[in-house]
Design brief:
Strand order of the largest sheet: 1-2
Shape: elongated
Number of domains: 3
Helix content: 55-70%
Distance between the termini: 149 Å
Radius of gyration: 50 Å
Length: 207
């Protein structure tokens, strides 16, 4: 029996990392001897058994997905089909469509969790109950143009009214300015005559 005290040395002898040995020890897959040393033969045996169990578990999952049973490989008997993918393959459809049909209640598994091929085939020929549609009302296809026209009317009439108001205000301002100019016109003429007289008097004085 070969025993090693150092975990690093034991890992080197086994061709694994010391981290892997630490993890295996924490998981309880391997244990030290009573004196705290490692028994290489015992560790190698335990690690091989763990590896074999993992590989067997992976193989079992792959076989289950492929629809291969322990007693009835790919057979459709009283037990039915275990794999949805195998059922889809036999029916010539995708397993996604079968999952959707199961969620909608069109097909269902047997009490043992397997699929009955004939029941599933019959269930797929049925359709889910159509849901009753609500009346169109204000959401009818003819309501949308009416809504667009109403919005268009609002978009056009609103600015037009604003423009009309602004034009009316401008017209009134111009009218007030014209009235003010008319009131000032005689005064402007008087100032012009006074200016002409002053210029003439200045010219006479210069002579």
């Amino acid at each position: 029996m070969t025993s090693i005290t150092s975990t690093r040395a034991a890992a080197r002898q086994l061709g694994v990392s010391d981290t892997a040995l630490h993890k295996a020890e924490r998981a309880g897959r391997i244990t030290r001897e009573a004196d705290g040393s490692w028994n290489l033969e015992s560790i190698r045996r335990d690690l091989s058994a763990t590896f074999a169990r993992k590989q067997f578990a992976k193989l079992a999952v792959r076989l289950d997905r492929a629809g291969v049973g322990d007693d009835e490989p790919r057979a459709v008997g009283a037990g039915g089909i275990a794999s949805t993918r195998e059922l889809a393959r036999r029916l010539g459809c995708s397993h996604t469509s079968l999952q959707k049909a199961e969620r909608s209640g069109r097909i269902a598994r047997e009490p043992n969790g397997r699929w009955d091929l004939e029941k599933v085939r019959a269930g797929l020929t049925t359709r889910a109950d159509p849901t009753e549609r609500a009346p169109y009302g204000s959401r009818g296809p003819w309501a949308k143009p009416a809504q667009h026209f109403a919005k268009l009317d609002t978009d056009i009439i609103g600015p037009v009214r604003n423009i009309h108001t602004e034009l009316e205000a401008a017209r009134r301002a111009l009218q007030r300015a014209a009235e003010q100019i008319s009131a000032l016109y005689p005064e402007i003429l008087r100032l012009e005559r006074a200016c002409d007289a002053a210029i003439a008097a200045q010219e006479r004085g210069s002579e």
